[in-house]
């Protein structure tokens, strides 16, 4: 029944589907009978799969549709999220949507094997339609987000591209080698109104690491925090351990940990307090009692690679 009318209207079984969907179903049957035609090198098979793939894109948000896939009485489809956004009315023909499921299109999707969306970045695997999205959320070839803190940077890419982006666009200090020195000075250590970020990228063991040092309010307490992130995936990050050491005035503090991956956002790592946290009073003590200026004269970091029997270390100094 077409909702909103005063009399019943019988909708024939195939009238509720788009003619293009019926045509794609027939093409899909031919493709499934001849599996090699799905290969990217076979133009006819690729064209057929692409046609069905386009039918599975929501016309409103352009994302792939997953059950329940809804359709209006005229056979126009859309995803369940957009069904709510358009207030249960078809945005094309203006018919009330009701609760009509496009079971035929859901069945077509169930029979598809599609390449990962990151196939142009190196992922050569194909997946059933309904499990493709889950794979893509964890695909090791998916691009990384820019690890720079303090901005809403939307740049993504592989590690070499991000290293170049950090150097050229964010003007981040780069280090090749295992040691470097830095001195943190804050002219008025009693005021931390806004977070202050510093980032250094260094190359060690043929990998890149982000060393963050920043000042912010932890609750109502002003603190300084240093932590390390690995420019790569979580599994490889676990192959390294690091220690951070800060001191002065005859004292020192040491933190030991495992670097988290840049897959985890900067704010997630910081808010987890997984790093060396220095409260302002202790930082002032390290400065030698001068409460007019904060000087962290010595901040040493070391990183060890745990996958080898003979461990190697780097010793960057902040």
TrEMBL record:
Alphabetized CDD domains for the sequence: RING-HC_SIAHs
Pathway(s) this gene product operates in, as recorded in its UniProt entry: Protein modification; protein ubiquitination
Ranges where the RING-type domain occurs: 58-94
One annotated Gene Ontology cellular component of this protein: cytoplasm
Keyword list, A-Z: Metal-binding, Transferase, Ubl conjugation pathway, Zinc, Zinc-finger
Pfam families linked: Sina_RING, Sina_TRAF, Sina_ZnF
Known catalytic reactions: S-ubiquitinyl-[E2 ubiquitin-conjugating enzyme]-L-cysteine + [acceptor protein]-L-lysine = [E2 ubiquitin-conjugating enzyme]-L-cysteine + N(6)-ubiquitinyl-[acceptor protein]-L-lysine
Top class in the EC scheme: transferase
Boundaries of every SIAH-type domain copy: 111-171
UniProt-recorded Gene Ontology molecular function terms: ubiquitin protein ligase activity; zinc ion binding
EC code(s) of this entry: 2.3.2.27
InterPro entries on file: 7-in-absentia-prot_TRAF-dom (IPR018121), E3_ubiquitin-ligase_SINA (IPR052088), Sina-like_RING (IPR049548), TRAF-like (IPR008974), Znf_RING (IPR001841), Znf_RING/FYVE/PHD (IPR013083), Znf_SIAH (IPR013010)
GO BP, sorted A to Z: ubiquitin-dependent protein catabolic process
Family label: Belongs to the SINA (Seven in absentia) family.
Protein name as it appears in the record: RING-type E3 ubiquitin transferase
């Amino acid at each position: 029944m077409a909702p909103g009318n005063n009399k019943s209207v019988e909708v024939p079984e195939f009238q509720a589907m788009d003619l293009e969907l019926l045509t794609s179903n027939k093409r899909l049957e031919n493709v499934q009978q001849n599996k090699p035609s799905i290969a990217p090198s076979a133009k006819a098979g690729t064209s057929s799969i692409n046609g069905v793939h386009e039918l599975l894109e929501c016309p409103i948000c352009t994302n792939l549709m997953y059950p329940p896939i809804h359709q209006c009485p005229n056979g126009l489809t859309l995803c369940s999220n957009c069904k709510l956004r358009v207030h249960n009315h078809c945005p094309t023909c203006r018919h009330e949507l009701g609760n009509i499921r496009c079971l035929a299109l859901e069945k077509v999707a169930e029979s598809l094997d599609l390449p990962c969306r990151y196939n142009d970045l190196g992922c050569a695997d194909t997946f059933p339609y309904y499990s493709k999205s889950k794979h893509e959320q964890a695909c090791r070839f998916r691009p990384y987000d820019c690890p720079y803190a303090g901005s809403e940077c939307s740049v993504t890419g592989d590690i070499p591209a991000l290293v170049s982006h950090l150097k050229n666009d964010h003007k981040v200090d780069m280090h090749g080698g295992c040691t470097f020195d830095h001195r943190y000075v804050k002219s008025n250590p009693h005021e931390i109104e806004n977070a202050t970020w510093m980032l250094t990228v260094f190359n060690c063991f043929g990998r890149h690491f982000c060393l963050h040092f920043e000042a912010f309010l932890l609750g109502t307490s002003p603190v300084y925090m240093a932590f390390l992130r690995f420019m790569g995936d979580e599994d490889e990050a676990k192959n390294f351990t690091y220690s951070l050491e800060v001191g002065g005035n005859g004292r020192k503090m040491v933190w030991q940990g495992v670097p988290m991956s840049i897959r985890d956002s900067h704010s997630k790592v910081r808010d987890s307090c997984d790093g060396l946290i220095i409260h302002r009073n202790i930082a002032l003590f390290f400065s030698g009692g001068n409460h007019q200026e904060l000087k962290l004269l010595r901040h040493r970091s070391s990183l060890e690679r745990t996958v080898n029997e003979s461990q190697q270390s780097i010793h960057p100094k902040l």
